Amino acid sequence: MITGNRLQALTSARQVLGQIRLVATDMDGTITQNEEFQDSLLVMLETLKAAGMPVLITTGRSAGWVHGLLHYLPVVLAIAENGGLYFTKENRYPTFLQPITNNHRQLLADQFQRLREKYPQLTESSDNAFRLTDWTFEVTGLSLSDLEWMTQNCHENGWGFTYSSVQCHIKPLPQDKASGLSQVIVQQFPNLTHNQVLTIGDSPNDESMFDPDQFPHSVGVANVRHYLDSLSHHPAFITEAEEGKGFQELMEALLAARRP
To answer: Does residue 187 lie within any of the structural domains?
Structure first.
């Protein structure tokens, strides 16, 4: 259920943007455009780096994918698997944000089979083999009622569940982007407060970063509107443009707010 709609146009965010010292952004549907990185994104990330504004990615994508992406993108670090672990430029080995056991992946597979008992058509995502803390399968063709049933079934069996525009995730119950990001801030940015962090997303697996009790300054790119009815927390601000063009719009506003 929606607890309140905080959405404001980005044009009213200048005072907030002037406080920001760290950008934490989702990837798919947020900095991508039509499922790809555009030239303008890479230019903007380089501009932010030159301006002394660190950017980190927090995504539901797998550890394997994120390890490779961090090598090429001008960002300070990347959190993978919706808060399960992260990599830095200096340390390419994963730092886990959730404890996992030796049989963790098997337990995740067991839960996936429970879901397949009702939905035998479910298929693993192509990147599932590259994951360490969660298990993913395709979201295509699933209704909101299907996803609600899966959430309940996972919770009954001691697992968390979330989904994005790309995938469904079976995960440890406490694992989400906000809790992972909070740990990363303590470990990597100890001088920053949550009031100095801007969180950005577009779908239900970003919802924890829209929670004002955790991160008060959040922005949704315009395609987040597709999910508003199913979100308990809304971003504080919303861009006019969707996907990567919305991110570009937001970053231009952020840089303008930093100018004297």
So the answer is: yes
Mean pLDDT value of segment 187-216: 97
Q: Which two tokens stand for residue 171?
A: 């995960």
153-181 pLDDT per residue, tens: 999 999 999 998 889 999 999 999 999 99
Could you read off the pLDDT of 30-59 as tens digits, one per residue?
999 999 999 999 999 999 999 999 999 999
In whole angstroms, what is the distance from residue 149 CA to residue 52 CA? 45
Residue 128: φ, ψ to 5°: -60, -30
In which domain, by residue range, is 223 found? 8-97+175-258
Identify whether 2 is part of a domain.
no
